[in-house]
Amino acid sequence: MHFPKLQSGDQVAVISPSAGLPGLFPWVQDLGLQRMREVFHLKPVEYATTRQLGASLPARAQDVLRAFADPANKAVFASIGGADQIRLLKHLDPDVLRANPKPFFGFSDNTHLHLYLWNLGIPSYYGGAVMTQFAMQGQLHAYTVASLQHALFTTGEVEVRAAPFYTDEALPWDDPATLYHERQQITNEGWYWDGEADGAGILWGGCVESLLLQVAAEKYLPPATALRNSILYLETSESMPPAWVVEYLLTGLGERGWLAGVQAVLVGRPKAWDFAHPLAVAEQAAYRQQQRAAVVLAVRRYNTRVPIVQNMDFGHTDPQLMLPSGRLARVLGSQQRVFFTY
Fold this sequence. Notes:
Layout: E1 11-15, H1 26-38, E2 43-46, H2 57-69, E3 73-78, H3 94-99, E4 104-106, H4 111-119, E5 124-126, H5 130-134, H6 142-153, E6 157-160, E7 165-166, E8 186-187, E9 192-194, E10 198-207, H7 208-217, E11 231-235, H8 243-255, E12 264-268, H9 281-300, E13 308-312, E14 323-325, E15 328-332, E16 337-341
Parallel strand pairs: 1-2, 1-3, 3-4, 4-5, 10-11, 11-12, 12-13
Antiparallel strand pairs: 5-14, 6-16, 7-8, 9-13, 10-15, 15-16
Helix pairs in contact: 7-8, 8-9
């Protein structure tokens, strides 16, 4: 499915289909909205539950449907992720979404809405939440801005490259003064490649923890035939699951027969620091290496040829690449190059 690109001055919807954290940290949300207006020249409109902590699932679902149904909205943005969005899906009306397709932005727990839209044939963009990417402390990252510009305003194939730096350690939101501080930036060691084959396919995937829920529930998964010749993308959240969790998910997908048919596997850089798990630099490196090894081990059991690209710039670290879920990507293992179609 295709829809027009946005124009300067367009109205966009802002919703909280998972957690209503804008109600707890309004200054963070306000900065994100300000950046949407000043940097991207968009007109964000918040919906009823956007700033409500503990809003009911039916109420949040109604905001999703209203945001998509309003023809004035040219895109829909999630404020933040959360933990319970899979329970919201049963309250959605697929006919409303199918009749009013528009680009949706968000990541983490918003994996569930991305996959729901994917099943309806509606592409979306994995990334670009208001409170995290738009409200980045200090200033927006240029790499994130460039990727958002592609997703919002341009059409066609774009070669994506590794960001020159990344940031992992966060700053606390409970002190508004931290909005003016810069996060520590670390030189990016680049992407890790395994396999020299070339592949092309439609992107499907999301956050590992959300995908585990999807596989367990099964009711929102696409038919296996729909994922034949697709490109799988995945990344882990600030919960920092051990490497065996990622291996188990991939093993399950392999036993379903899905890994044998994918054309490439893309893995975002694992977040390796959190307030609850403040790992030292050496521990962060070890955590990431363990996950990379687990991914290669699990995928190669079912597909010895497919190119695997890890440490990519999407997911829970920044800057962030917007993945066009439901659109074509090309992964050239022979040249170590990646192309997304926006």
